[in-house]
Amino acid sequence: MPLLDLTADVVTLTAAVVDIASESHHEQVIADEVEARLLELDHLQVVRDGHTIIARTELGRSSRVVIAGHLDTVPANGNFPSRLDGDVLHGLGTCDMKGGVAIALHLAATVPDPAWDVTWVFYEAEEVAAEFNGLGRIARERPELLAADFAILMEPSDAGIEAGCQGTLRVDVTTGGERAHSARSWRGSNAIHAAGEVLARLRAYEPRRVVIDGLEYREGLNAVGISGGVAGNVIPDACTVTVNFRFAPDRDEAAALAHVQEVFDGFDLVVTDSAPGALPGLTAPAAAAFVEAVGESPRPKYGWTDVAQFSVLGVPAVNYGPGDPNFAHKANEHVPVEHLHRVERRLREWLTT
Amino acid sequence: MPLLDLTADVVTLTAAVVDIASESHHEQVIADEVEARLLELDHLQVVRDGHTIIARTELGRSSRVVIAGHLDTVPANGNFPSRLDGDVLHGLGTCDMKGGVAIALHLAATVPDPAWDVTWVFYEAEEVAAEFNGLGRIARERPELLAADFAILMEPSDAGIEAGCQGTLRVDVTTGGERAHSARSWRGSNAIHAAGEVLARLRAYEPRRVVIDGLEYREGLNAVGISGGVAGNVIPDACTVTVNFRFAPDRDEAAALAHVQEVFDGFDLVVTDSAPGALPGLTAPAAAAFVEAVGESPRPKYGWTDVAQFSVLGVPAVNYGPGDPNFAHKANEHVPVEHLHRVERRLREWLTT
């Protein structure tokens, strides 16, 4: 007997998807089930790549959209399996992002003739290091499978549209010095004191706000770590400040790095992490139609999500899914039933009119 | 056959003392040997307490001096046993401080009738945490054994007199904040940025220089450690700067702390370590006679040594021993033969005239 009935009501279906445990790197069972159910649908062409399933309509429409969600969750935290309590469905993954996955599966099964060709993507390993990310692997190795005019990533967005995303850059800013016994500190040079200038520049920094496609993106430049010191009686000869720059999507990674280098002119910088932002791209016809169908003003996305994977491929993308993202990865993760119904209804309207 | 011949030349005797391994907490063999050899000397009254040996003349002199050295060493570092190479004796403890111990043992054996009554102290566990220090234990539990008008601690001082010592205070200065996702940094408050003010005060600080008994002591206020950060995408809510204040001996511990509290007014401080300085006390008659016998201008001691243990007991104390302290705890530790001979000769002159 199948674990999932894709024609069931989205609350029932979300609970069923949640109840298939699928912590990152353990997506075999859920991927097998999703693949099997999608293969039963004659209107979809199904491709499997690892534990990532791609199902496409081939209706010859003038536009194609991608609707994507990841199948994995973070580890359980006393919140498995699901539990329906009145108007709220509780449990691991209800918010991030099996509610969105269930809606996508339900629409894939019940909208055989959408107004746009649709590429449904259900992928693995979003919650772990980028190298394992199923969507990233497809984007690198089989980008033709993701070709589209517009993409919706069903990450929790409080059932509103969060457009584009910030980029993120992480650098280590290191200061040097010369060791000496702290009883004779004048013979050395204190690297932690030198790092004071790094912190002074961070404190004086005024982050930019920029409006793109009518959305205001706020940047931020912050120390997220600092470490220095040799021993309690030694003037330290090294200190490292780890700085995270969250940048608006009108800067690319190179421009973001150049900006940070300018801020820390005179210091040694080592880049430890970099990911591009994503422009909201709300002017594309399919995107504009989607915004109109949802009927709400898009908000800018603060944070980095896999929408950037689409942006790199030249596909405008938004986050749109049920659930408050503040409850993602929390023991009290949950999704409002109303979100599930509303997001399903709006997507159905957009796909069928 | 005895391991040590106290009447041997001080270079030979230093090598023999070095060649009895005595890393901290492993002083049994050396303490047994020192005790046995001192017990053979009729002019000394010997007390053993743990692995600390105290040998006293009881000649009824008007003044009493303490001459002390620790028996333990840091762990070997490819520098055991000793090796005589021309005018330099190499090896673990040659400098810190078995050269001084050998001179003291030699004088204890060969000066039976000194001008001042002498209390010779050979103690354990100086190189490890203060709670194990043999001299500190005697000072706390049997202070009468250390009663004297003047004390010489035979720590390496480049064969010059280093008078008194700085005190040391270590505090953790902690800043707080509020966590937030670094993509929405304006919702949090960055504790590392707040620590920038701590570093700013350290950078602006002008350490005092003060002359005491003709000696200039230099103070220093330094960050010796800093740590903060939760994760690469989190605005941190705590940062700790570990600050070490090395203070001139005209401040006591309470005054030193009050000063540091004033510097960091408005911040949370936790004291993690505090030890008093020691005034040079060169005006006492036995001290003045010693300075005259050595014939060199005393220098201030930069650093904390066990002379402070005597200072707490009201006994003025100096550091005076063979060897350059910069080579203590180093693989290339060594002592010049000339230092051994000179320090022995000067102490003998002072004790016998």
Automatic annotation (TrEMBL), chains A, B:
It holds the Pfam family Peptidase_M20. Its cofactor is Co(2+); Zn(2+). Pathway: Amino-acid biosynthesis; L-lysine biosynthesis via DAP pathway; LL-2,6-diaminopimelate from (S)-tetrahydrodipicolinate (succinylase route): step 3/3. It is an enzyme of class 3 (hydrolase). Residues 167-264 form the Peptidase M20 dimerisation domain. It catalyses: N-succinyl-(2S,6S)-2,6-diaminopimelate + H2O = (2S,6S)-2,6-diaminopimelate + succinate. GO terms for biological process: diaminopimelate biosynthetic process; L-arginine biosynthetic process; lysine biosynthetic process via diaminopimelate. SUPFAM superfamilies: Bacterial exopeptidase dimerisation domain (SSF55031), Zn-dependent exopeptidases (SSF53187). GO terms for molecular function: acetylornithine deacetylase activity; metal ion binding; succinyl-diaminopimelate desuccinylase activity. Homodimer. This is Succinyl-diaminopimelate desuccinylase. It comes from Aeromicrobium marinum DSM 15272. The gene is dapE.
